[in-house]
Amino acid sequence: MRSFYPAIFYISLKIKKFIFINPSKLPLRTVLIIAFVTQILAVVGLTGWISFRHGQQTLDDLATQLRHEITARIQQHLQARMAMPHFANQINIDAIRLGQLNLNHIRQLDHYFWTQIQRFKDVSYIAIATATGEYIGAQIRKDGSVIVEILDSQSAGYLETWETDKQGNRTKISSRRAHYDPRERPWYRAAVKAGKPIWSDIYVYFTGLSTGISANYPLYDDQGRLIAVASADFTLLDIGKFLQELKVGQHGQTFIIERSGLLVATSSSEKPFRFDASAQRTKQLQAIESSNRLTGATSHYLLAHFGDLTQIDKSYQLDFKVENQRQFLQVMPFQDQWRLDWLIIVVVPEADFMERIDASTYDTIRLVIVALTLAILIGIVMARWISEPLQHLNSAAKTLAQGKWHPIIELNRQDEVGQLAHSFNCMTQQLQEAFTQLEEKVIERTQALEAKNLELLSLNEQLIKLNQDKNDFLSIVAHDLKNPLSAIQGAALLIQSDYDELPKDQVVDFASMIAGTSHNMFELIKNLLEVNRIEAGKMKLSIRLVDILPILRRLVNDYQQRAKAKEIELIFEPTLIECPALVDTNSLQQVLDNLISNAIKYSPPSKCITIRLKQNASHVGCEIQDEGPGLSEEDKQKLFGKFTRLSAQPTANEHSTGLGLFIVKKLVDNMQGQVWCDSELGKGATFIVEFPTPLH
User: What totals of helices (H) and strands (E) does the chain contain, helices first?
Assistant: First the structure.
């Protein structure tokens, strides 16, 4: 086999030498065929020889690539499958939190768990145990039937195992287990002790047919009291089946172990557990005690190389010998967010790669023979070269007729066929240029239409906004003007008709009500006119240097009586001698008046409102802090909007138009200032307004 490729190369050189020495004695067709065949022989022979020489050098690269691909596939499989139990638990925990699962009637959840266990093919058992000791779980048997296990007040302390029909209905009790308390089970205790989702230790099923692992998720209420523990089991036998399906050479193996050396799953037929006669129970198998020669030898080598399996903190590619046979090894840690910590191990004998290289060599020889045969046939066909240009032209014409531009045909010939090809190329190029210009025009028109569409969309959005503003305005007029006017009209008619019979104090009350209601309507109309003036851009500000302190002091004095009426203490802390700022005096007074009025309006009785001044190098500010109900996140998002109605209401049924803070925001912005609110629900609110200083 090693001399096959050099022989081919030598024969090809001899044939070429004969042709070049005696070219006139051979027909042209024969010369073309032989030249083509000898070139194929030379290239194939030389390439095959070089490939064989470098085959040994690529052995390590192949081994590295194979080990990396296998470990990556195992890691991907584990990440996908091991997340399913925790995903099932998360669904159940979310359902309990949203009130979709009622743990007070746990027996009624049988259909839910019957359906869920059939949705999660990678989960063998799903259950929930409450803090009161009630329990429900579902399991799919190998024959596809589903059982439901229930422990509640109706089961009289027994864990009932129910058979179910194809609709999920419980049919009969197949077994009853006494003295079962899920709160005493290791998986329940481990989840409660951790206080967060975790994995249990690997355990062997009672049937002794497989091992499993349990994902557990504790649920607590807002006070930190335990409500329940959700649990989902995963059968490790499925991982072993996946490892057996992987193709790792002819005799390669893969297996997974814990950091303690216990076997989790293996691609061999060996089970990862065995019966311990001394302990009279089935337990996990140590990998170094494996009866599989390759598994045991690999485990011994890892322990000897690292000393302790916990020292393996990254992926390693190693090699060692078993009975003088070289073995390629890769070990990689696998960890997840639920504290799972395993080692993925792939081991492949070197002999597997040599078998592939030898088999590839024989395949190459067979391909060379096939290639020689094909070369001779192709050489004969190439003698018909006259018809080929016409076939290319025909194919190009058909392609052009279908609307596809065919590559330009290049023929270095001066005869009629060459002239025809040149004319065809010119025609194709002209058509392509014409179609290109047409497509550019279509693109330009399309872009223009898109720009118009965007402009129409913008105008439509503006119309929608204006329509919404109109609706809001009509709603305010209908509610805040119509109702007060109706009350004023009713009081006026009553005074007009029964004036002589009404007591004086009742007439005064009616007059006070009319005056107060009229004042509220006046404030509403004034605010509406102010909003219209702001949005129409008709505000004329006179920005000049103004001392804020006397204005604020006067407003505080004006509002003292109103604050005392609600038993509110209005505190002013003038920490500065003067507070000059660049503002419009009327607009400043309107802003501060609005903010102080709102603080009194939304503060409960017996509370304090504190007003402070602050100053820095670039701004002068005022803080108005109340002890009212505070603002939710939703309220803060729409706080300065127009016609805004907040969840908090005035504490003494004061009137609110929903326009005050909108006007404040617009006025402050026009004076190059800024206003915002710091608040938490139930902890009051602090409104801060800042204006630029002369230095700024």
Answer: 16, 23
pLDDT of residue 394: 64
DSSP 484-539: HHHHHHHHHHHHHHHTTTS-HHHHHHHHHHHHHHHHHHHHHHHHHHHHHHHHTT--
For the stretch 112-171, pLDDT in tens is: 999 999 999 889 899 999 999 999 999 998 888 999 999 998 998 899 999 999 999 999
Identify the bridge partners of residue 263 per DSSP, sorted by sequence position. 257
Q: Which of 693, 685, 476 is nearest to 596 (CA)?
A: 685
Res 400 pLDDT > 80: no
CA angle 194, 196, 200 (to 5 degrees): 65
Tell me how far apart the alpha carbons of residues 265 and 55 are, in angstroms, rounded to a whole number. Answer: 34
pLDDT tens for 5-45 read 555 555 555 555 555 555 555 554 565 566 666 767 676 66
Quote the CA–CA distance of 214 and 200 in Å, as a whole number: 5
Please state, rounded to an integer, the average pLDDT across all residues of the chain. 80
Residues 335, 67: Cα–Cα separation, whole Å: 19
pTM of this structure: 0.48
How far apart are alpha carbons 145 and 165 in whole angstroms? Answer: 8
| Structural domains in the chain plus CATH codes | 87-235 (3.30.450.20), 239-355 (3.30.450.20), 400-538 (1.10.287.130), 541-692 (3.30.565.10)
Widest distance between CA atoms in the chain: 146
